[in-house]
Amino acid sequence: MKTCPDLGELGLNAGKKTRLHRILYQFGLHNGTALFLPYDQGLEHGPRDFFANLTASDPGYIARLAVEGGFNGIALQIGLAEKFYWDYAGEVPLILKLNGKTDIPSDDQALSPLHATVADAVRLGADAVGYTMYVGTPAAEADFAQYRQVRDDARRLGMPLIVWAYPRGTAIEAKGGKDSFYAVDYAARTASELGADVVKVNFPHPEKRAGVPRAYDAEFSTQAAIDAVVQSANRTLLLVSGGAQAGDDAMLDKARRSMEAGATGLIFGRNVWQRAHGESMAFVARLQEILAKYPRGGEQR
Amino acid sequence: MKTCPDLGELGLNAGKKTRLHRILYQFGLHNGTALFLPYDQGLEHGPRDFFANLTASDPGYIARLAVEGGFNGIALQIGLAEKFYWDYAGEVPLILKLNGKTDIPSDDQALSPLHATVADAVRLGADAVGYTMYVGTPAAEADFAQYRQVRDDARRLGMPLIVWAYPRGTAIEAKGGKDSFYAVDYAARTASELGADVVKVNFPHPEKRAGVPRAYDAEFSTQAAIDAVVQSANRTLLLVSGGAQAGDDAMLDKARRSMEAGATGLIFGRNVWQRAHGESMAFVARLQEILAKYPRGGEQR
Amino acid sequence: MKTCPDLGELGLNAGKKTRLHRILYQFGLHNGTALFLPYDQGLEHGPRDFFANLTASDPGYIARLAVEGGFNGIALQIGLAEKFYWDYAGEVPLILKLNGKTDIPSDDQALSPLHATVADAVRLGADAVGYTMYVGTPAAEADFAQYRQVRDDARRLGMPLIVWAYPRGTAIEAKGGKDSFYAVDYAARTASELGADVVKVNFPHPEKRAGVPRAYDAEFSTQAAIDAVVQSANRTLLLVSGGAQAGDDAMLDKARRSMEAGATGLIFGRNVWQRAHGESMAFVARLQEILAKYPRGGEQR
Amino acid sequence: MKTCPDLGELGLNAGKKTRLHRILYQFGLHNGTALFLPYDQGLEHGPRDFFANLTASDPGYIARLAVEGGFNGIALQIGLAEKFYWDYAGEVPLILKLNGKTDIPSDDQALSPLHATVADAVRLGADAVGYTMYVGTPAAEADFAQYRQVRDDARRLGMPLIVWAYPRGTAIEAKGGKDSFYAVDYAARTASELGADVVKVNFPHPEKRAGVPRAYDAEFSTQAAIDAVVQSANRTLLLVSGGAQAGDDAMLDKARRSMEAGATGLIFGRNVWQRAHGESMAFVARLQEILAKYPRGGEQR
Amino acid sequence: MKTCPDLGELGLNAGKKTRLHRILYQFGLHNGTALFLPYDQGLEHGPRDFFANLTASDPGYIARLAVEGGFNGIALQIGLAEKFYWDYAGEVPLILKLNGKTDIPSDDQALSPLHATVADAVRLGADAVGYTMYVGTPAAEADFAQYRQVRDDARRLGMPLIVWAYPRGTAIEAKGGKDSFYAVDYAARTASELGADVVKVNFPHPEKRAGVPRAYDAEFSTQAAIDAVVQSANRTLLLVSGGAQAGDDAMLDKARRSMEAGATGLIFGRNVWQRAHGESMAFVARLQEILAKYPRGGEQR
Q1: Confidence of residue A2 (pLDDT cuts 50, 70, 90)
Q2: C185 pLDDT more than 70
Q3: Model ipTM?
Q4: Which candidate in D104, D132, D153 is best for mutational testing of the E interface (most E CBs within 10 A)?
Q5: How many whole angstroms separate alpha carbon E201 and alpha carbon E203?
Q6: Which of B66, B65, B30 is nearest to B265 (CA)?
Q7: CB 3.0-4.6 Å disulfide test: which of A253, C230, C248, E221 passes with C262?
């Protein structure tokens, strides 16, 4: 089992450390791991994501789920944060997602425009901000330009910055696709080089090798791949996302391997709430069983 | 009959609540519903919209109609607001439309440029601002960028923000078109995720299914569709627009179903003023008959 | 004969009213009409416009002509205003033209970039600013963006804003062309919706019907067309431009019909100075004869 | 022999007049004419321009040449000005060239980006700034936008503005090319309309007529062409540039005709320093012989 | 052996001279030469560069290598600088690399977006900033625009500016390619013209002549080429970069020729750390042997 960097060695200023400490040690399992509930799919995919469980269309229901399930945080866009978070303010950390887009136009030139600022996050009592960076997109110049402002504001205001590091765009499609080991590994490193405090990646697929650079065109085990991705993130805490709903066993295996590799935690949305309430809670409990086995930074203080 | 969210639970600051309360309870039927008169067609379509009733070319005539008809507000672009609203200031709420465009170039890359600011609205005594967001347009980055500034100014100045959420552009045309259930539902949710206080949508057409995502490629009744759209808007008040003139019965049916679904009101322009004055007033009376049956938030205080 | 809106009902602030009053009642015929001399053709078309009368290449000559001819104003770009207006400062009102372009590249995506600010106009003692808006151009977003700043500065500094409302670009070419009744009517309305104090249009050609919207695809007399254009401008004062040199009788007919329709005046350049000095003065006198028959707002105070 | 406008009638503020007076009457021949040494070819063409005389690669050598040759000024980009001008500060006026580009990509959409500001020029003790405007380029909007800021800063800081008015881009190529009489004449006028204090043009070629507007498609003598160009510049002082090295006699003839037409002076670079030191000095002497015959504004004071 | 310009004659302000003096005379060999360790390949190429020596994936390892090897500085992106430099602060100078990009999309329109500011460098205790300029790229306007701000901030804050002058883009590919003598020579001159204090170039290849301008289409020895490049940089200190790993002898030869030509030093990354620790140290020692033979500016004071 790999270790995970301690909060004390990440180069955090006092505000960032205060808020990350709150998220990691005063919520969830209080053991330095994290389980986050992302809820921006209504914008990213549209209401169709709620057809499997119409109750999940209600942000109030999801916020309650985050509280009841003992999540370390819930990620919302500005509109839902302003309308619904007040009711649960302080009961679960808020991650204000600062950018987002619909999936209506093609992703060839993917760019996720800003909808809110770090100052909005401060005003709403959030403990972190989220930013989607489309690594490799032809629109990288615009992406990096808006990211740079976010990074600087987050530093200035002491707000932890979680980067959704998502390979995307025509060039990535030609080099193994968005969840190849190559793409995910590069995305994790990019987030670290550019100053993310926490990076969220998809689980890497080493078997997707069509068009990847030679170094990645070899046999890697799934565990070797996720190990390498965590290493590429170095002192950036790493979260693995769930993605579209898949079988529970596959998800739990993914969670276990990620924690084994030194990840800090998981960020699972559709796999949690695209089912009835009881099933959601049961699945969350199984995820937490895994996280309980990998306490992080217990040595701190 | 679905209920409509109460003003007290929308996350409004004092300025926004004051102005929305004025619009919804001190004008029109004073019962929490709304009937708005939009008058930006001279810019959006050009003077041809007035050929059916040349008197309607005169903004003074339209402003008088809004007062006489007991509307909850009139929506104008900055030029007409500056030249004509003074004469009726305080007699009917002004919604300053902040952006708009001509229909001369193609809508493939639709974007509606800003012409005024929220500060202009404050200066002119307006009680709300209107913003057209072209959901799904390839120009989404520019659209969201200017919207973000508007949203932030509206919050800072306590001005209610009404989003004209209009699916538009080449990708939407390939996925069912701009008034498909899919497109309208996604547009309502987008406005809510991004912080609209009120959203204006076209009435959804569940029968337009060519190219829509699988979830929408099924039999939905008209009522089920508008019900879902209102639910997608969650704590964002919803207005249904009239669109181009159609038969009165169809319009009244649309109005009734919308209110049944939990909408806050209607925003009808051409259907109102593309006819002689007496007929306009008679049609308005029939719309108000419907609104009278759906008082909203009567329980507040 | 149609009436023209009175200065008192245009929604003007004190600075704008002061300066428009000076232009309309303290210069020219002092009767509320206006005859302007535009002199930006050296930029818009290049020196070739002066080959018919080389003396006209000298801005000093043109400024003297404006004074001697009793014009209500002369329109200049910043460079010529700075180099030549001082000699005649106060003797004829200056309209500082804020944007302009060469005619070297194609007009398909026409946009007229800014060269000066409203503050420059104040500094130079100007009584109005001019802005060319290319209605219908694919570059509308950039056009409206720079216009918005000009409109706001003009309001803040009390400077009357004259919009050169010129239909232009590929879409207009496909819908009847830049001087069709449809295009000119839409342009006048657009300027009014967007807050022009005065709008300059080309004389409408109702016979240009190829590709125009159905409402315009009918028989309209020339007088009916210019009447409609003036009505579309509502409380925006309207000027008719002369365009390229044509026969004097055609020009005088155009002038007469425009004033009959309720226009405030004329803005004639090449038709004035593309001939010898004596002929210029004689033609000006004939234009003034017409204007003298249509005093505007004589009832004021 | 045509006259040249006097400094007193150019609409200059005190700072601009002070600095132009210094350049024209306290350096060079002290007679109101000017001979400038441009040295931005290392950026515009690359080091290949120095292969004919490798010594010329050294900016220090060139600065000494400007001092020894009695030039009225040397034009440098910011980097060379900061590294080399200090050694000769005050001994020859500095013209800080504010923009420039390499000739590596095609000139179809030519635009010359800014590298320095007018404030940099003030800081470095410069007596003028230079700006390359690509007249007729499809990138005109960006060009004019950056020029506008330069013009305004130059006015505010009292710094003379010399515009390199260069026709360029696909449309110009289709209309006679960049040194046709049509193109050069239009460029001179554009600089004047847009507020240049001094304009630098290439010598016009009236025989290049393929594709030019009708007015220019006629027989013009070389002298008639340069006369017209100086007239188009009106109260903007005009400099003629040397361009690529050609025979000395051709150059001297060009110089003589330009001065005859009323130009203020010459700006010759490669023709001066693409030869050995002694030859350079001899050629400069012959240019100065010509300039001595055309004293400008001697009547001033 | 050519000489190298002295710090006293580079036009440096006090802050820049202080920091360059520290880098050149208080670290490394203390003799005015420099050996830098660049470590931005994780962003520029992705983690694949670390597959040859997985330890090199750890920025902490690399920082220790810089200290132990007696480097004159280590170049890092903002994220790694914030997370890892604190541990070694003051022990080796930090060069904060301000821009960078992934190599996922094509380089046809190469542009390297900014990720940090000169103020970030000051805050982190850096002694220089690095900026990648893609000379000849079709995106030159955007490149120069962001560079201009960096140059100005660096001057204002007294921070030495090292320009990675890299020919790149479609036009360069058609004219000999990015490491032709022509391209490297032009790049060095461009950096000097635009105000770099130090320029980093690739070693020139005079044999790459396909498509180069005539002046470069001749026989040049390797030494003649690097001599010319150093001369083109004039008073800009020049560093030669190592590029992809090649044989040690070739690298040492490149180093020797560069120093012979008057370069200030070397910036070698992959050639240093793509091997085991002991081999890295041995190779560094051989580079330093060469640098020791070329003390620079020893005469200063």
Answers
A1: confident
A2: yes
A3: 0.95
A4: D104
A5: 6
A6: B30
A7: C230
Rounded mean pLDDT, A222-250: 94
Q: Which of B172, B185, B194 sits opposite A77 (nearest CB)?
A: B194
The two tokens of residue B92 are 């009917």
Contact yes or no, A with D (3+ CB pairs under 8 Å): no
Least CB-CB distance to C102: which of D186, D228, D236?
A: D186
Mean residue pLDDT of chain C comes to: 96
Query: What residue type is assigned to position D147 of the chain?
Result: Y
Tens of pLDDT along D69-101? 999 999 999 999 999 999 999 999 999 999 999
User: What percent of chain C lies above the pLDDT cut of 90?
Assistant: 94
Looking at chain A, which residue has its C-alpha nearest residue B142?
Answer: A113
Q: Other C-beta atoms within 10 Å of E243: how many?
A: 15
- Enter the tokens of residue E101: 């990009």
Q: CA-CA distance, C63 to C73, in Å (whole number)?
A: 10
CB contact under 8 A, B235 and A83: yes
Residues of D in contact with C84 (CB under 8 A): 11, 235
From the candidates A108, A193, A216, A237, which should be mutated to test the interface with E, based on the most E CB atoms within 10 A?
A: A193
Inter-chain residue contact C46 with D195, CB threshold 8 Å: no
Which of D194, D214, D215 is the closest to C79 by Cβ?
D194
Spell out the residues 6+ positions from residue A297 whose beta carbon is closer than 8 angstroms to its own: A4, A6, A7, A8, A24, A32
Encode pLDDT of E63-111 as tens digits.
Answer: 999 999 999 999 999 999 999 999 999 999 999 999 999 999 999 999 9
Give catalytic residue positions of A.
166, 200
Q: Is A138 an interface residue toward B (CB < 8 Å)?
A: no
Closest CA to B195 of A43, A129, A80: A80
DSSP strands (E only) in A44-197: 73-76, 94-97, 128-135, 161-167
Contact present, E226 and E257 (Cβ < 8 Å)? yes
Kindly tell me if the per-residue pLDDT of C299 is higher than 60: no
* Residues A40, B193 contacting (CB under 8 angstroms): yes
Q: Which two tokens stand for residue C191?
A: 């300027």
Mean pLDDT for A205-229 is: 97
Q: If you search the block for the tokens 């802005």, which residue do you land on?
A: C131
Whether B204 and chain A come into contact, CB under 8 Å, resolves to no
E297–chain D Cβ distance below 8 A for any pair: no
Q: Phi, psi (5° rounding) for residue B140? A: -60, -35
> Is C46's CB within 8 Å of D186's CB?
yes
Task: Identify all chain E residues contacting A234, using CB atoms and an 8 Å cutoff.
Answer: 57-59, 80, 83
Average pLDDT over residues A128-148: 97
CA distance A75 to A100: 12
Distance between CA C2 and CA B133 in Å, rounded? 40
B289: three-class secondary structure by DSSP: helix
User: At a CB cut-off of 8 Å and minimum separation 6, what does A215 contact?
Assistant: E48, E51
- Rounded to a whole number of angstroms, the distance from the CA of D220 to the nearest CA of chain E is 36
pLDDT at A300: 46
Q: B148 at the A interface (CB within 8 A)?
A: yes
What tokens appear for C189 in the block?
């309305």
Query: ∠ at Cα A273 (A267, A277), nearest 5°?
Result: 130
* Residue whose structure tokens are 């916020």: A63
pLDDT-based confidence at C298, cuts 50/70/90?
low
**Contact call for D and C: 3+ CB–CB distances under 8 Å:** yes
